[in-house]
């Protein structure tokens, strides 16, 4: 039942974005963000003093929905303020923070529970929510002018989503981003068992290796910032895809051959680097032509990540706590499906677009 609370939180994070995104397109970024943060504070503190597990699961879902606003609206604000190369550079920073968080948070949680019970974790989250609310109140200006906001009702929002789902290139980048981020969830779920149960690492050494993959994502994001402007976003994106495929293939070979810890660690480190590269570039390319409905577009991108992550997380443990084979298969499958999505949905259309541009230039 307690494990179900994590699933409820992830569902809230995913589904909540589909609501918060359109609301931010209609009412601006700041107001929905402030309201959601107040809801986050209340639900977090309520989790600490909840009387039964059923109520705890419900509150975790509400907490997830409230937290989803921060994810989707921060990306929409970036689209409001930046475009082109500048947006790629800024999103690389934003992606680095959002992707590193799931890798760092278990260590942060362990630090809190070292001097408190699980109740202290939720009290800490409530205090963190208060801090963030203060930052939003006094440090964040509205980025979406009234004249640029979406007008209409529920049907209008559904039409906007329909427009996004019918855009093959947008859906291609959204799927690649979501599928590979699902690999991150598989990593988070699988490595505690692999490192500690199979290779008998101490909790302290596991924490160090686990945190190193957060560093890998940061390296990938920094690579994007450095080479943006020198290389096209498409070239950077394809390099990231190739790196994810090669590294995930190495992971699969290592686990099938019962390879060493160093082989698995180096392979997963490189896979994490590829996530840091692909994340910001795929977001920029997906959002490029959807500035007017940036909230809804960002919601689709975010929902895919958490929905697919909810699928991959339990799969890595289907063979028990002492087998790394499902982990290797899941990671490899995510990179393979990402490449298939790119070829089917993006490459063909992109090649045609480049041909049209060349023809116009020659004319």
Topology:
Elements: H1 2-27, H2 30-48, H3 53-81, H4 84-113, H5 118-139, H6 154-165, H7 168-198, H8 203-227, H9 233-256, H10 261-287, H11 294-315, H12 325-362
Question: Could you walk me through the main structural features you see in this protein, from its secondary elements to its overall organization?
Answer:
The chain is mostly helical and 363 residues long. It has one domain: MFS general substrate transporter like domains (Growth Hormone, Chain: A). The protein has twelve helices and no strands. Helix 2 packs antiparallel against helix 5 and helix 4 packs antiparallel against helix 8. 43% of the residues are buried. The C terminus is likely disordered. Pfam families: MFS_1. It is found in: Cell membrane. It comes from Paenibacillus aceris.
User: Which stretches are low in confidence, meaning pLDDT under 50 for 5 or more residues running?
Assistant: 351-363
The total of beta strands comes to: 0
Shape: globular
Count of helical regions? 12
Q: Name the structural class.
A: mainly alpha
Rg: 21 Å
The ordered H/E elements are HHHHHHHHHHHH
Count of the separate structural domains: 1
At CATH level 2, the architecture is Up-down Bundle
What is the CATH C-level name? Mainly Alpha
Which band does the percent of strand residues land in?
under 5%
Protein name: Bcr/CflA family efflux transporter
Pfam families: MFS_1 (PF07690)
Domain Major facilitator superfamily (MFS) profile: 1-353
Subcellular location: Cell membrane
């Amino acid at each position: 039942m307690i494990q179900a609370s994590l699933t409820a939180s992830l569902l809230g994070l995913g589904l909540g974005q589909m609501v918060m995104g359109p609301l931010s397109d209609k009412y601006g970024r700041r107001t929905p963000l402030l309201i959601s943060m107040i809801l986050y504070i209340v639900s977090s503190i309520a989790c600490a003093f909840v009387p039964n597990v059923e109520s705890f699961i419900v509150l975790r879902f509400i907490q997830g929905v409230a937290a989803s606003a921060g994810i989707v609206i921060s990306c929409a604000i970036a689209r409001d303020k930046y475009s082109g190369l500048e947006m790629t550079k800024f999103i690389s920073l934003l992606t680095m923070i959002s992707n590193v968080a799931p890798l760092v948070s278990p260590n942060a949680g362990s630090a809190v529970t070292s001097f408190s019970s699980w109740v202290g974790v939720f009290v800490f989250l409530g205090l963190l929510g208060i801090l963030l609310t203060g930052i939003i109140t006094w440090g964040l200006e509205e980025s979406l002018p009234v004249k640029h906001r979406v007008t209409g009702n529920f049907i209008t929002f559904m039409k906007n989503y329909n427009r996004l789902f019918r855009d093959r290139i947008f859906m291609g980048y959204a799927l690649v981003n979501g599928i590979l981020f699902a690999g991150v969830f598989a990593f988070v779920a699988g490595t505690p068992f692999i490192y500690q149960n199979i290779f008998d690492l101490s909790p302290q050494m596991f924490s160090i290796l686990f945190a190193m993959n957060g560093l890998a994502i940061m390296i990938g994001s920094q690579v994007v910032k450095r080479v943006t402007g020198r290389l096209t976003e498409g070239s950077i994106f394809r390099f990231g895809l190739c790196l994810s495929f090669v590294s995930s293939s190495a992971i699969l070979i290592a686990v099938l051959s019962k390879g060493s810890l160093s082989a698995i660690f180096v392979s997963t480190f490189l896979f994490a680097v590829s996530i840091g590269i692909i994340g910001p570039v795929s977001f920029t390319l997906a959002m490029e032509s959807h500035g007017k409905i940036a909230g809804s577009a960002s919601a689709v991108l975010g929902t895919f990540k958490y929905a697919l992550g909810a699928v991959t997380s339990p799969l890595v443990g289907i063979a028990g706590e002492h087998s790394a084979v499902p982990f290797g298969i899941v990671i490899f499958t995510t990179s393979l499906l990402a490449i298939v999505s790119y070829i089917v949905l993006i490459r063909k259309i992109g090649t045609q677009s480049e041909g049209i541009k060349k023809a116009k230039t020659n004319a």
